[in-house]
Fold:
Amino acid sequence: MDAIVVGAGIVGAAVGEALAADGLAVTVLDAEFPGAGTTSAAMGHVVVMDDSEAQFALTGYSRRLWSERAAELPPDVEDECPGTLWVASDEEELEHAVRRSHFYRERGVEAEVLDSAALEKAEPNLRRGLAGALLVHGDRVIYPPNAARRLLSNAVVRGALAERRVRVEAIEPGRVRVNGSWRETAIVVNAAGVGAPELTPGLAIEPRKGHLVISDRYPGFCRHQLVELGYLKSAHSAGAESVAFNLQPRATGQVLVGSSREFVGLDRSTNRRLVGRMVRRAVDFVPALAALSVLRTWVGFRPSTPDNLPFIGEVDEGVFVAAGHEGLGITTALGTARLLADLVAGRVPEIDPSPYSPLRPMPEAQHG
Amino acid sequence: MADSVTIRVDGREIRAGSDTTVAVALINAGVWTFRTSVTGEPRGPVCGMGVCFECRVAIDGVEHVRACMEPVRDGMEIDTGG
Amino acid sequence: MAEVFDVAVVGAGPAGVAAACRVAERGARVALVDEGFRPGGQIYRHREGRAPAAIGEWMARLARLKVDVIHRTAVHDALRLDGKFQLRAESVHLEARKIVLATGARELLLPFPGWTLPNVFSAGGLQALVKSGLEVAGKPVVIGGSGPLLLPVAATLAKAGAKVELVCEQARRASLARALPWLARSPRKLAEALSYQAAFGPSRYRTSTWISEAIGTDRLEAVVTNSARRVSCDFAGVSFGLVPNVELAVLLGCELRDGFVVVDRRQQSTVPGVFVAGEPCGIAGVDGALGQGLVAGDAACRDVTVTADVEAARGWYEYKPPPLLRSFALRHEVLELARADTVVCRCEDVRLSRFDPEWSAREAKLATRASMGPCQGRICGPALDAILGYGADCVRCPAKPATFESLLIPEDRK
Ligand SMILES: Cc1cc2nc3c(=O)[nH]c(=O)nc-3n(C[C@H](O)[C@H](O)[C@H](O)COP(=O)(O)OP(=O)(O)OC[C@H]3O[C@@H](n4cnc5c(N)ncnc54)[C@H](O)[C@@H]3O)c2cc1C
Ligand SMILES: Cc1cc2nc3c(=O)[nH]c(=O)nc-3n(C[C@H](O)[C@H](O)[C@H](O)COP(=O)(O)OP(=O)(O)OC[C@H]3O[C@@H](n4cnc5c(N)ncnc54)[C@H](O)[C@@H]3O)c2cc1C
Ligand code: FES
Structure:
């Protein structure tokens, strides 16, 4: 059976790999090159999240899949396992940390609560006087552009074709249109990220812009991915724009700082004011950051959905969607690919696919 | 040298003209390796004008300072990581 | 509160100094910002009190005038804000109604085996270090690469007492001969070229010659030329032409053509209020840069046509340099010197074998980290474009490494 995957971001590449492993004759098409889209802009934090049971199921499953293949990832994927420190500013947030630790541990995810002193020892560059933190073990950091390239090359090893600079203009059951002519295929997977709604009209995906700032190399500056516990409040707040403290040690010794969220369409310009706010937030948590040297800022567009869950499943006969992974697509690419391959093959997936169905009812959009 | 200053490079004292740069002072003193590259190669200044970043050293504890853009100052502590 | 200048000039080379002087002479409030610790830029680089006459004249003119000279300040971001321009640097945010970008050029470096050894410099880099006091007296040096820059560099070295063993120009003699009629039209240029040759001895200047390898363990010991000649040397200076510094112009949205900023006769870019002078809008040499600086300065402070004396100051610049530069067109052999294991991106140590000819600059960066280091692709970017046709990567702020602190908006600084 033939399959065409539209989009060679991390999701399309993973889907291509999974379908090729099932013996399908896969072609992965990308309008630019593998990993050129949102994947090129992502932090690469592979993280278990607990916003909802469905989100936990997919992130937990996917993180397990990443850790299972850690040994086979080439060095340029920069895979590391620093864990995540969810930093609590005050007692209220620390209580939240305790609740989350229970949630994780009940579900088999190793997590512990650090008090103020333990946090200080774990991350000496954090400002003094923080209440503590939730330490989630097993969360990883990878380099997304090369992770996508790797998944795609695995697909190619299993017989898939990868074509670059091929823009798909339309998708219909059994075929896709390229340069005005139709290419036949049994299965089509729309994995076009923020471009997915163009090919599957009505798909509720909107670009949610984010900025990142990366430093020069300062090995040992921090050891864990650091995120403020208040992150969930700001990340999912309905407001037009928000920032949160998110700081990542890269395998190179660099420090990568996020995060910002805003809905401004596909405007690629750097919002200096928002970057300023984001950096302010980071410096408030990590004062020594102020003096480090920055090499670059950039932007990316999270493919966001109204309920913060991706679309994974069939929308029309033989037409599947794997898109809308918002700020978690690097993490969830592997779980998504397995789920999708199971649905295509008619197998029973390891986790319940219904929360991610593209046909599920949608809440009202959260912003104006 | 009419005016000269004393700086320390990796703990060793060297004297240099007061109107020169750290890059020039180091090379004149026989220090050619300013940094070790990410795969461990010795590197020194190239462009002499602040563009290539090959002349990076730590000065008085501040990392990644371009030696070619930095005038020498008496008592400066320079660390090449060597 | 940021100060508001009538005009802010970025870059204190000949073009920027001329522009700033002109603006000040017209009575407008002007700032001249430069990354170096002394005005003069590349060509006018000098040690305190040892400035040659031509520089002295301009420096005296600058000193007489009311110009706010701001040294040691790298502008890392430029943007339009409330009808003005804002220039951001490490410790200052400058505001100005008009800006003149006179950011000069850097050298084109091409990778060859051994080029990363300590004491292998760019040609201009070696010259700059000598001008800041590098001791070369009695030491053997080799200059290589291509272009009109090699001669003055060799002359500077010779005057400082170095033994200039060899000046390798990759271009063919016949190709250089084609530039002669052009040089003849500018007797000063011709005289200059001859005086350079006299300084280090004409027999040392070899055409169709290039350094194919630099040899040494922890520093340069010798170079090997394409005719397999081994020349022992302590220092080498190698570069293959100039690359305009257009980053700030790009951040401001100025249109480029063939890598240069498009300007009109008043040196105004496609962004009103942004004037560009010197190398970023065409490789023009000192005289051209001075002329363009005067025009830009004039135009930036008055919304009238450029005066006749300033037009005249442009002088020979109207004889566009391309014929000369074409004479130095790079031969394929020098684009093929790097071996599979030769480092191309020096910040990230990315070797030639990693690059796929099918890529663009952006894909190469994402796949290999080439150009992700602190030079922000200024060295390997143009090299990869020359040898693999990758084009240019996009520019983002900060256009020079800057601290996190300097990315804060002023009201957010502590
Ligand atoms: C700032 C930022 C930080 C992030 N950090 C993290 C993180 O730490 N952890 C995490 O898990 N996730 C993170 N994410 C989210 C993650 O980047 C995305 O969820 C993920 O990259 C989505 O992958 P994708 O393959 O769906 O989309 P993309 O990577 O955008 O891939 C889609 C591909 O489809 C191609 N395409 C589009 N339209 C067409 C067409 N018509 N024809 C052919 N090809 C087409 C595009 O060229 C593109 O290559 C972050 C995102 C941002 C913006
Ligand atoms: C984990 C990770 C680590 C990284 N580490 C580094 C690093 O150490 N050093 C480093 O330099 N980079 C680093 N990068 C960033 C990389 O260089 C890219 O900037 C980043 O991946 C974003 O990719 P991009 O090509 O989409 O964005 P960009 O390269 O920023 O831009 C993409 C497109 O946007 C357009 N564009 C750019 N600026 C504007 C503008 N102002 N207005 C409108 N359009 C614009 C360009 O023309 C281009 O086509 C890293 C990236 C990741 C994911
Ligand atoms: S020598 Fe190039 S930046 Fe100093």
